[in-house]
Design goal:
The protein has about 300 residues and is an alpha/beta fold. It folds into two domains: about 220 residues, Rossmann fold (3-Layer(aba) Sandwich); about 50 residues, Ribosomal Protein L24e, Chain: T (Roll), CATH 2.30.170. It is built from eight helices and twelve strands. The strands form three sheets. The chain has a seven-stranded mixed β-sheet with strand order 1-9-8-5-4-2-3. The protein starts with a helix and ends with a helix. It binds zinc ion. The site of zinc ion has 9 residues, from strand 12 and helix 8.
Length: about 300
């Protein structure tokens, strides 16, 4: 009969695990402010400078391991943690809502690791807003930063597998194959069918994937006073749309870019079921009786319109 591991290895050779060391909740005082170490923050800030200097260019960086899985917003989280100071006011949303699981957990994590940072749910009060899948309805002001969590940073990935070739295509501004993809949509469906991640040309050169925001939000990138930062943690890329920069969705001269219009069968714009707003992006769902209900996706905007 073979001996067991415990019998063959002397006890003192086996690692002794101190259970108190495993309990990280006991003492946070040894952690750096903002979770990341200062070298990581410096590198991310330098990457951000480059991203702002070359609007739309995907700058590589060494994405750090975070205490959430890649694909759950690690890129956006690393940008936010590198920028936050104690004077900042932070808002975190997911699909427009402050109360969804992803938003609540990221907000809790940041409040634990950044003591002193104020939290808000009201867009105009925030200095940094971290978001997934939506741009808030209140327009960004000068001095505000919107950080988007990005799953796939490169719009060319749908037409070219090789990253080296994609880099060359970006460098040369060669988006011919992307245009062909849009044209094929026109031929097949009589309109461009991309609903999210609509390819958008920044400052007349680089085309970006603006993350899975709806078409409705794409015009909010164009010539606004606020700064947009995009972080893709799994793909290790950061890019930016600086204030007052052109952001044009790719389309043909004779096919104007169209956003979701939320019109009913009679051609009237549906209002939000809760606040009555007719200019916000609406979520569609079924109520308890199985009837279709339309409601603002931006919970802060909906509350503000309700209290007007
Ligand atoms: Zn509403």
């Amino acid at each position: 009969m073979n001996p067991t591991l415990q019998e063959t290895v002397p006890e003192k050779v086996l690692p002794q695990v101190n259970s108190e060391e495993l309990d990280s909740s006991k003492d946070n005082s040894t952690h750096e402010f903002g979770f990341l170490d200062s070298f990581a923050k410096k590198e991310i800030r330098r990457t951000l400078f480059k991203a702002v200097s070359i609007p739309g260019y995907q700058v590589p960086y060494s994405s750090r391991e975070m205490p959430i899985a890649r694909g759950f917003g690690t890129g956006g989280l690393q940008i936010t943690l590198s920028l936050l100071g104690q004077e900042d006011v932070l808002k975190v949303i997911d699909q427009g809502s402050d109360e969804s699981v992803n938003a609540v957990n990221i907000r809790n994590f940041i409040s634990k690791t950044c003591p002193g940072v104020s939290l808000t749910k009201h867009t105009p009060e925030a200095t940094i807003i971290q978001t997934r899948h939506r741009i808030p309805e209140f327009p960004l002001k000068l001095g505000q930063i919107l950080v988007l969590q990005v799953p796939y940073p490169d719009p060319l990935v749908i037409v070219e597998n090789s990253e080296a070739k994609r880099k060359q295509m970006h460098g040369e501004g060669d988006y011919a194959r992307l245009w062909v993809k849009l044209y094929e949509d026109m031929v097949q469906f009589s309109e461009i069918t991309i609903s999210h991640r609509y390819p958008t040309r920044i400052n007349g050169h680089y085309v970006i994937d603006p993350s899975p925001i709806p078409r409705f939000d794409v015009p909010k990138l164009h010539q606004v006073p606020g700064l947009y930062l995009f972080g893709a943690g799994r793909e290790k890329k950061i890019y930016a749309v600086p204030p007052f920069t052109d952001a044009q969705p790719l389309t043909f001269d004779d096919v104007p870019f169209r956003v979701e219009d939320f019109k009913d069968a009679n051609g009237n714009r549906r209002p939000c079921n809760r606040c009555g707003s007719t200019d916000s992006y609406l979520d569609e769902f079924l109520d308890e009786e199985g009837c279709r209900v339309y409601q603002c996706s931006d919970s802060d905007y909906c509350n503000s319109m309700l209290n007007k």
